[in-house]
Amino acid sequence: MLLSEEPATLIHHTIKNFNIGPDKQAVSRVSESLSTLEQARQLRISEAESALRRLSRQLGTLSSQHDDLVAAHSPADHASKIARLDTQKFRTAKAASDAEVETERLAQQAADLSARLHELELQGVEGGDDARRRDPVDDEVLLRLKVYRSLGIDIERDERDAEWNRAVVRNDRKGDVHVVNMDKKFSRYFYANYFWSTL
């Protein structure tokens, strides 16, 4: 009979029928994984604690430096320094603005003198008598220069080839001054449009 066999034999056969080997291996793998995770967790905790201690030391150092700076800082001196720098800034800006206005005035004066010199050169050494006898082409050039100057445009000749190669366009309404180097590769129509756009 079955019950007449030894209990150890029965238990051994029962265990063999359940086939618990894979389960034991799975439990062993889970235990190893848990052990590995625990080690990694402890390592991360150790690194975090070390970083926290380092940051705490830095915080203490920075707090000490901040306290020293606050103790050494005088709000009255700071306000006085800011007021002095603001005053200096406004004075510098005013001086720059005055210099710019004076530069424009001198540039206009120089242009007027240059145009007057050109007129005198066209009139010749003998003045008015010679002016009446000069070439009609010169009269036309002089008239053009006067018209240009009345519009705020000063035309300059190149000393080497006596060609018109430079123009200074002033817009008193906007306070702008444009210097244009004229090139033969652009047409007169192009420069006329440009001059009108800046006036």
UniProtKB/TrEMBL annotation:
It is found in: Cytoplasm, Cytoskeleton, Microtubule organizing center; Nucleus; Chromosome, Centromere, Kinetochore. Keywords: Cell cycle, Cell division, Centromere, Chromosome, Coiled coil, Kinetochore, Mitosis, Nucleus. One of its GO terms (cellular component) is nucleus. CDD domains: RWD_Spc24 (cd11565). InterPro entries: Ndc80_Spc24, Spc24_Fungi_globular_sf. Its main location: cytoplasm. It holds the Pfam family Spc24. Belongs to the SPC24 family. Component of the NDC80 complex. This is Kinetochore protein Spc24.
